[in-house]
Amino acid sequence: xxxxxxxxxxxxxxxxxxLELSFKRKPTFPTIDGEHILGRENYYFKKVCILSGTxxxxxxxxxxxxxxxxxxxxxxHPLQSGDKIYNKSKxxxxxxxxxxxxxxxxxxxxxxxxxxxxxxxxxxYVNSPxxxxxxxxxxxxxxxxxxxxxxxxxGACFFKRDGSEVINFPFEFxxxxxxxxxxYYLFSExxxxxxxxxxxxxxxxxxSILSSFDYTIEKVVEIAINGSGKKKEKKExxxxxxxxxxGDAVDINDKGDITNNKNRLSKGTYDAIKIASLIGxxxxxxxxxxxxxxxATYYLDEKMSYSHSELEVSIINLIISKMGRNCQFFYTTHxxxxxxxxxxxxxxxxxxxxxxxxxxxxxxxxxxxxxxNLINHIKNNFFKTLPSTNExxxxxxx
Length: 398
What we know:
By secondary structure, the chain is of the alpha+beta class. Helix content is 26%, strand content 28%.
């Protein structure tokens, strides 16, 4: 599934906040290829979304909600977002527009009202096929009309459930209309990943990335057992060993955890292990995304906050270069240098927190030109994203 819009109300610190993940016009000089559904040249989506904001502005929360929605739709997992309702006397609301590509392109809308106990009070689902010349915004208006009339045209589906009706949500129907996909969310607050490291470990990628973060790393090798020792028996890889130029070694198990010499790696280099695993997964799935077999979502949440800015920019460029066609990459940061990436203006979104509520500011809405310098605008607080240092300044004066 490819996200084209997200609206959040009364969850975490969001109040009627809307994240736009499509755009209306093709850039004059595009720097990212394939920002439209294959065969639907006017149906644009943001292939790369850089979310920039201060601490506690909601960057991680956006990923939690997107991941919650994907787990719910694709795996029928219970929702978890209700735990983060802001005003306990009201429902939390998630509304998401997304597109799928197989067996043929469809646009979908899912709106959920949820209680603090993660009980779904109300749910709305609508879909409609994407025509050859349809744009994302045209399909939105069509879906709005379906909801208003409460009647789906031929080829579309309309489904609504509220607390007074005992109707099961039609997961099988949605899957029949193409909700295949894969996703990988790597959050800053923990080291959990969606799949074991062993399934995404690429020795070449791991060695190149780790040695870039720490030049004293000499090589990375597999740790394996051969079972009975027979030559024809396939070895079982149980982890990997990082060797340093001075002879030190660090072992990593199949979950990506360090099992010895734990203080040998810096925080930035340790996080690079998880990032290398993400890049390995992107490489594995590229062929399927290129051939329209599946869609992929990748969310990297400030995992390079302990890294040099040059490394951060290079890793982002590497990820973008490895992505398949039907992919979306979300990256959260508060590092200025990332804003100098050679990306279209619509790739940048800023999160602002004001009076306790978080909301989104689209760079393309505030600054139209593509030949811009976003860093200067950030430093001049054009997007209202700089943290307040008033209290710190008072302490200095005291």
